[in-house]
Automatic annotation (TrEMBL):
Residues 216-392 form the Peptidase M16 C-terminal domain. This is Peptidase M16. One of its GO terms (molecular function) is metal ion binding. Residues 80-209 form the Peptidase M16 N-terminal domain. Transmembrane segments: none annotated. Coiled coil: none annotated. InterPro entries: Metalloenz_LuxS/M16 (IPR011249), MPP/UQCRC_Complex (IPR050361), Pept_M16_N (IPR011765), Peptidase_M16_C (IPR007863).
Amino acid sequence: MSGAVLPFRSTARPHGRTFGGALAGAAALLSLMVAMSLALLTPTPAQSQTTRITKVTSPGGIEAWLVHDTTLPLIALEFAFMGGAAQDPADVPGVASLAASLLDEGAGDMPAEAFHRELADKAIELHFDAGRDEVRGSVRTLSENRDTAFDLLRLAVTHPRFDTEAVERIRTAQLAALRRRSTEPNAIASLQWFAKAFPNHPYGRPVDGTLESVPKINTDHLAAFAAKNLARSNLKVAVVGDITPEELGKQLDRIFGALPANATLTPVANVKPQGLGTVDVVPLEVSQSVVMIGTDGLDRQDKDFIPAYVLNHILGGSAFSSRLFKEVREARGLAYSVYSYQVALEHVGLWFAGTATKNERTAESLKIIAEEFAKIIDEGPSQTELDEAKAYLTGSYALRFDTSSKVAGQLLQIQIDKLGIDYIDRRNALIEAVTLDDLKRVAGRLASAKSTLTVVVGKPTGLSGG
């Protein structure tokens, strides 16, 4: 719920199956779903937002957050197993990503083709993905097909097959994606930045692996990852739709009850980015250079995270009113797009800025961005900028809740960020409470942000590095 936009990372393929049928027909009722979701943010006086979110604990002790709504006969379930690609073997990155891609490629006594056919016949959407800190999954289904959907999910997480045919097919797709990404400036910049910032740490390894590591992944790696990481102790669940708390409690045990009680996770150390104060140039024959600038930020649990979030919005978080937009694009025409954003990973907080500009204007763009970073830290924003930021950030919050899937995703992220079940109630008030003194204080804490690790991909003139 940080509002963060994570650095570029595409996946080898969409991790999951999406089918039309009855769900496509239900999409015609989108306006009803929007009304249902926005009701979370505009409760009647007699019913607060928090009372719409019920904490459900199954008979077996599995916890989920539920928004029970019967506006449409649909159920959206989002879940995460904490751990993710940070649990990959140091010498074989990409295991978590490949394993997540394969969870819907057959399970139990159903090979991939039969598993996919059952999903399609019942118009069930099933999706898995791996990030640095978690493996996520989602199910969307018509209420009438929930038993089948939940049973297929149960098989996928408790009895994945990792059949040779499926492994080789998905491996080939992942390698093809890596080859494409090897010539994409944004992808190169992100990979290079994290590798330079976090040497000898799991965050420095590519989530999807490398052209050298992915061919080395075998079924033993995949099975070991699933056995160690898919467990009840590191599981978080959010559900929105046509299911009661009592029914959900039973289904939680049915889906996840057979998982191991405890995950066997390798400890991951908290970390700070290295290489600050340096510029790394990656030569690439393109007409525009892609710039990725990163530095130290705040953890999501830090009491100053919300003031830092507001400060970032003023610097580069808004497409049209931010300082970076005005100075880099409007005043000088250096780039079409320029932005800044926060990233709150489990073991580090980061602050990024980025742009793409003509090779011959890259050095000038970097100079202006650095000056704006320093200026907002040294001088802080104006009251007008603060008022405008508050109005935008509070007014746009409802847009994160315009479908049942988005609502479930937000509830899951709130759990991951450990913000509390009442966060939706409190969030806008936290932003409204931010003062100029708060921004000055957090700017002082972020003074080190004036020293950055910069990665430039292209053929910039007037820059050197490596």
